Amino acid sequence: MEVIASIKFDNNGLIPVITQDNLTREVLMLAYMNEEALQKTLETMKVHYYSRSRKQLWLKGEASGHYQKVKKISLDCDHDTLLIQVEQIGGACHTGHKSCFYQDLEKKKGLVEKQDLVFDPVETYASQILKDVYNVVVDRKNNPKEGSYTNYLLEKGLDKILKKVGEETAEVIIGAKNQNPEEITYEVADLLYHLTVLMVNQNVSWEDIFLELKKRYV
């Protein structure tokens, strides 16, 4: 596309994007796009970004349902920044606020929160957190890091992983017998992590688990 050819992506192939509510003109967030993300945005008229940390494309709202429907895309005078006006479904910020700019920096008070939550982030992103942990384990498998506990488990293999799953299951039982909610929370988190390592080892995804649960109980 001729217009995209005129855009000045940086040395990493990215361009900053300011996203704005098309009705209120409130600035919602700042993120980045690569050429593929911009192409997808133009094709679907839903905003796609590029995650610098995960190094992958992501459709805004895919996990939460809080999509950004494109109303207008503008390019600045230097052709190195995009402004996208959108119809924001729900909130733009992963914290549960409508805008990522929900804090004001005041001279006397410092950071002051100025917006109420528009959704519960824990409820909305609970399953996504498990998927994020899964993706980290997959990344460790494909790109080993020295000193990584995850790599240690994966390298030791199935028997070691199963042993840890058994140990963590026992820790959950002990926490429950102690009737200690804080201990149970900690141990269940440990168990879920080790189960995730087992799932990666066995090529089972959280989507597989969610679908099975839906078949049985929903």
- The CATH architecture name of the largest domain reads Roll
- The name of the CATH topology of the largest domain is Ubiquitin-like (UB roll)
Helix content: 40-55%
So what's the overall shape?
Answer: globular
What series of H and E elements makes up the topology? HEEHEEEEEEHHHHH
Secondary-structure-based class equals alpha+beta
CATH superfamily of the largest domain: Phosphoribosyl-AMP cyclohydrolase
* Spatial order of strands in the largest sheet: 2-1-6-5
Tell me the span between the first and last alpha carbons: 45 Å
Task: Explain what you see.
- There is one protein chain.
- With 218 residues, the chain is α+β, with helices and mostly antiparallel strands.
- It folds into two domains: 2-98, Ubiquitin-like (UB roll) (Roll), CATH 3.10.20; 121-217, Orthogonal Bundle (Helix Hairpins), CATH 1.10.287.1080.
- 44% of the residues lie in helices and 21% in strands.
- The chain has seven helices and eight strands; from the N terminus they run αββαββββββααααα.
- The protein has helices at 2-5, 35-44, 121-142, 149-156, 158-177, 181-201, 206-217; strands at residues 15-21, 27-33, 48-51, 56-59, 68-75, 82-88, 103-106, 110-113.
- A four-stranded mixed beta sheet has the order 2-1-6-5, covered by helices on one side. A two-stranded antiparallel ribbon has the order 3-4.
- Helix 5 packs antiparallel against helix 6 (181-201).
- It is globular and about 60 Å long.
